[in-house]
Amino acid sequence: MPRLSLPGPDEIRRFALIAGLTALAYALAGWLSFKLSTYTADVVAAIWLAAGIGAMASLRFGMAGVAGVLLGALAVNSMNLSLDMAFRFALGAAAGAWIMGTLPRYLPPFSATLDYVSSVAKFALVAAPLGSAVSALMGVLSLYVYSNLPAEMVLQGVWVWWLGDLLGVFLIAPVLLTASRWDLLPTNPAARLEGLILVLGMMMLTLAMMNYLEPLRPAEIVLFVMMPAVLWAALRFSVTGASLAIFLAALIVMGMAVVSYDGITSATPQREVFALQISMLTMALGGLFVSAALAERRYSEMRLDMLANHDPLTGLPNRSYFQDFLSHTLARAQREMSQVSLLFIDLDRFKHINDSQGHDVGDQVLRIVGNRLDEQLRADDFVARLGGDEFAVILNHPPASRAAARVARKLAQALAEPFKLGQRRYAIGASIGISVYPDDGLDANTLLRQADLAMYQAKQRRSGFEYFSDEMNTVAQQQLTLETGLRQALGKNELVLLYQPKVDLVSGRVMGLEALIRWLTRSGNIISPEQFIPVAEETGLIMPLGRWVVRAACEQWITWRDAGLNPPPVAINLSPRQFSDARLIDDIDTVLKETGMEPAYLQLEVTESAAMENPVRTFEMLDALRQRGLHVYIDDFGTGHSNLGQLKRMPIDALKIDKSFVADVLTDNDDAEIAIAIIRLSHALKLRVVAEGVETPGQVAFLRQNGCDEIQGYIVSKPLPPDKVSGLFSQTFTFV
Question: What is the spatial distance between Cα 45 and Cα 228, in angstroms, rounded to a whole number?
Fold first, then answer.
C-alpha cells in the first residue's frame, strides 16, 4: 500500500509564510480600496486593488497564495460585515484568485511575466474576467440573499464589482508579475531622464486639468493624459515599463479623485464611475497588449540575431560571428601594437562516440564541451564553435603568446576529464593548435589556417597543443602540391592498377585478385598509396578516385574475359568515405551496366573499422550489394573494434586476417592464437577466411594446418600489372 507523502517542516513554513504575507498585502490593499472607492452598499469597491494581489499570489505561489487571499479577504471584509458574510466574500475572492492562477496553466504556452500577446490574452481576456465574475456573483448574490442589497441594485452591484476586480487585477498584478524583469528597464541616463519626464508630465497635466477644467471628469484624465503616457511607456520601456506606468497612472487618478471628490463613493454619479472604470480598463489593456506585442518583436529579433550569430546547439558564437570578431580584434591589435593568440580546438575520439552512440549523445557531448570551454576562460576571452567538433578561442590580453600555452593546457585538461551521460562514462580529449598575431599572420584567414595546421601537428604527435611553425607550412605546401598533382593525375591517365593474386590453400588455384592503385607520374616516379590516399581522404578526392578504380578494374576484367583468359573475381578496396557515400551503390550499378561486368566476379573489401562505424547503415549497404550478386570481404580483421553480435548478423562472405597478425604467427603465441581464433570464427559463421601478407612456407604450413582457406602475399606474387598477372590464372601453386 503506497504511503501518503506529507509535507516536510520546511514546506509547511514556506506555505505559512507565503499565505501570511499574501493575507497581509491583500488586507491592506482591500482596506485602501474601501477608503478610496467604496461605491455600492459600503462593501462594493469601484476599484478593488486587492484582486491584483490575489491574482499575482495565485499565479506565483499556487495554493499558498490562494490561502492567503482567503485569510486576507476574511480579515478586511469583517471590518464592515458579519463574520458569516465576510467568510462568503472571502470564499468568492479565493475562488476567483484560484481561477486566475490556475486557468492560464491549462492554456499553454503561458508566460506569467506577460511578455507575449497570447499570454496577455489568456490572462486578461479569459482568466481575469472569469475569476472576477465568480467573485462578483458570489459576493453580490450573498448580499442580495441576506437582504443587504435591494433587488434593483443587484445588476449594478455585479457590474461595479466585476469591473472593480478587473481594474484591481490589471492595475496591480502586472507590475508585481513583471517585477522580476526590472532588469529589462533601460539603465542609461537618457532613458531614465525620459521616464522621469514622463511621470512628471502625467502629474503636471493632471493638475492643470484639475485647475482649469470644470467640471472635471476623471475618465477624461485617463483618456487624454494617462493613456498616451502608458502607450508611450509601452513603446519605449517594455512590459515592465508599461506595467509600472499603468500602476502610477492609477495612483494619480485615485489621488485626484480623493482630492476632488473625497474618493469614489455612492455620491459619485453612476455614469462617471462606469466611464472611469471602462477608461482605466482600456488604458491598462492597451498598454499591456502594445508592450507584449513589442516584446514579442524584440524577442523575435533577438532570436534571429542569435540564430545568425550563435550556434543553436551550444549557444556559443558561430563561425560567422567568430570571423567578424577576430577581424575587429586584429584591427585593434594593429592600432595598439599588441598580440592576439588564436587557439584552434579539435576534439579527439568524438567521431567514435557520435557514430557508436548516436547523434543525440554526440550533441550532449558538444554542449558539455561548450560549457567547459566557457567556464575555463576569462570574461574578455572569446570562444566560438566553428562547426562539427571544432572550436576556437581568441586571447587578446597581454602577453597573448605566453598566455596561450597556459590556457591551452588548462583547456586540454578540462576536456580530458571524463563525464557521465545516463549510465555510461565517456572520455574525450582535444588537440589544440596555436597561432599568434602578428608573428604567424596578419589577417584572420591566415591566422586561422596556421592554427589549423598546428592543430593537425598536435593531433599527430598526441602532444595536446602545438604552436605554429614555418615547417608546418612546408608540409602543408607539400600536401597541396600532392593534391594538385592528384587532381591532374585523374585526368591524365597517370593512375594504374596492379593486381595481387589470392590462392586457395587446398587446390593451389588463383581464386581472386586484389586491385591495388599506383600513381605513375609522367616523370617516371611511382607515388605509393600511403602518400596520396590520406590526401585524397582529406580533400574528398577519394570519391572520384574510388569511382575510377571500380571502372578500371571492371574494364580490365572484361578485357581478360574477351581474350579468353577465364579471369578470377577481382576485388577493390572501399575507403571509409566511399562506404559512407549514398551514391556508392548507384555508381557501382552504373559501372556494371556500362562495362558488362558480371556482379558475381566483383568483390568489395571494406575495413573492419569502416564497417562497424554505423552498423545499421552498414547492414543496409552490404545487403543491397549482395542482393546484386557482389561479394563482400571484411579487410584488416582484428585491428578494429568488432562487435561479434553485429558481425554474426552482417551480410558478408569472407574475413581477411590482417598481415600484422600473420607476420609473427610462428614466433608470437598471441598472434598465433588470434589468427586461429579468426579462422575458427569465420568457419563458425560459414565465412571464408583469407590471410594477408603471407611470405614464408612456414606461415603457409601454419595457416593450412589451422584451416585457412586462402592466402595472399609475396610467397604467391607481388602486385603485378595486368599483362603479367594474367599468366597466373591457370597456374597451380605448391608451397614447400
Answer: 26
Separation CA 361–CA 353 (nearest Å): 8
d(CA 213, CA 547): 92
Does the CA dihedral 146-147-152-154 come out positive or negative?
negative
Q: Which residue has the cell 549523445?
A: 361
Written in H, E and C, the secondary structure of 348-388 is ECHHHHHHHHCHHHHHHHHHHHHHHHHHHCCCCCEEEEEEC
Nearest to 433 by CA among 392, 396, 400, 398: 392
pLDDT average, residue stretch 468-485: 62
Query: Using alpha carbons only, what angle is made at residue 643 by residues 637 and 649, rounded to the nearest 5 degrees?
Result: 95
- What's the pLDDT score for residue 235? 80
The pLDDT value recorded for residue 25 is 93
Mean pLDDT of 256-279: 68
Phi-psi region of 422 (alpha: psi -120 to 50; beta: other; left: phi over 0): left
Least confident interval from 121-130, 593-602, 637-646, 659-668: 637-646
CB neighbours of residue 85 within 10 Å: 19
- C-alpha span between 709 and 511 (Å, rounded): 10
- Cα separation, 55 vs 129, whole angstroms: 11
pTM, full prediction: 0.49
DSSP states of 226-271 as a string? IHHHHHHHHHHHHHHHHHHHHHHHHHHHHHHHHHHHSSS-TTS-HH
Residues 6+ apart with CB under 8 A from 386: 318, 319, 322, 392
Burial of 5 (0-12, 13-18, 19+ CB in 10 A): exposed
Structure confidence by residue, pLDDT tens digits, 661-688: 898 888 888 889 988 988 998 898 898 9
Note whether 132 and 51 are within 8 A (CB). yes
Q: Which has the higher per-residue pLDDT, 138 or 232? A: 138
DSSP 528-562: -HHHHHHHHHHHTTHHHHHHHHHHHHHHHHHHHHH
Peptide bond into 9 cis (omega under 30): no
Half-sphere exposure in the Cβ direction for 143 (13 Å, CA): 27
Counting residues of the chain whose pLDDT is more than 70, the rounded percentage is 83
Q: Integer distance in angstroms from the first to the last C-alpha of the chain?
A: 80
Residue 175's pLDDT is: 84
Cα 53 to Cα 68, 114, 201, 240, 694: the distances in Å are 10, 16, 28, 17, 88
pLDDT at 302 > cutoff 80:
no
Number of H helices, E strands in the chain: 28, 18
Position 266 scores a pLDDT of 57
Please, what are the domains in the chain? 9-303 (no CATH), 319-468 (3.30.70.270), 496-727 (3.20.20.450)
Query: Which of these, 85, 44, 92, lies nearest to 69 by C-alpha position?
Result: 92
Average pLDDT over residues 259-283: 71
Instruction: Write out the three cell numbers for 496.
Output: 594504374
Q: Residue 519 in 3-state DSSP?
A: strand
Residue 239 has a pLDDT of 80
| CA–CA distances in Å: residue 329 to residues 10, 316, 404, 448, 701 | 52, 18, 16, 13, 69
Q: How would residue 413 be classed by pLDDT, with cut points 50, 70 and 90?
A: confident
- Coil, helix or strand for 342? strand
